[in-house]
Amino acid sequence: MKSKIAIIAHGGAGGINYPHRRRSGLIKAVQAGYEILRQGGTSLDAVEKSATILEDITIFNAGTGSYFNLSGDVEMDASVMTSDLMFGAVGVIRDVKNPIRVARLVMERTDHLLLCGENAITFGRLMGMEYHNPKTKEKKRIWKRKKKKCTSTYFKKISELVDLYGTIGAVAIDQHGLISVATSSGGINLRLPGRVGDTPVIGAGTYADKNGGVSATGHGEEIMRHLLAFRAVTLMGKTTIKRAGERVMRYATKNSCKCGIIGINKNAEMLCLNNTKAMSWCYIRNGKLSVF
Fold first, then answer.
1. What is the CATH number of the domain that holds 58?
2. Which of 34-43, 183-192, 265-274 has the lowest mean pLDDT?
3. What is the pLDDT of residue 35?
4. Which of 167, 183, 217, 276 does the annotation list as catalytic?
5. Residue 1: its pLDDT value, please?
């Protein structure tokens, strides 16, 4: 029996600057992914397509337009996972247009789950990924402005320095019931060089199994500490998706984890919650589009 098809995407949790640009970008990404599902394509193809579109829209903190680290470089993270426990990720990758594509290649073309740094770049080049500079003038201006506030007590001041969390993500279920998740991030603004966030850590920013799939966004260190995506998906197998989401958000709030999550369970029911000021999101279910 065929499953219902559905797709949901987010553009990050925190504050929402330029909401109209975010809204139009998310609609474009979700519509493209849903069209793949509608034509009988896989959820993996759908979330990859949605994620690459969001990586190419410079208002989002992923791919082109990613935030700069403390030294002014762009180091990106990305991951994909399917409900049959296939997983691929890259960490601190530079100079590629679409990290999500490299993450999928890690999953499908290697025996590994995660490649990082220079060797992730080398692998991407071997797989045909050309050089691309993801820096934008807009994000450089933000970096210069924020860096002026940076002091030796940086980590104690992180909540003041970082008012807009990054990351984009997409979750979909196809006609065969396969659930896929894609998450991509440019990382926290002014982070230390070499920092790996929650996005490429299995169970933290991305997770999927027979119960469902989740993509998380927010303060990566805390999302990693509490394996938020794994926690949410596990609860999907024990209770309703609504209760699962509420329990995870209560847990995150109790533990000072500023975050948002999107997800889909095996019944094609959706989850979209956050405990930050706002989160941008969009989904299509039963052919009907909804957007923040």
1. 3.60.20.30
2. 183-192
3. 98
4. 167
5. 56
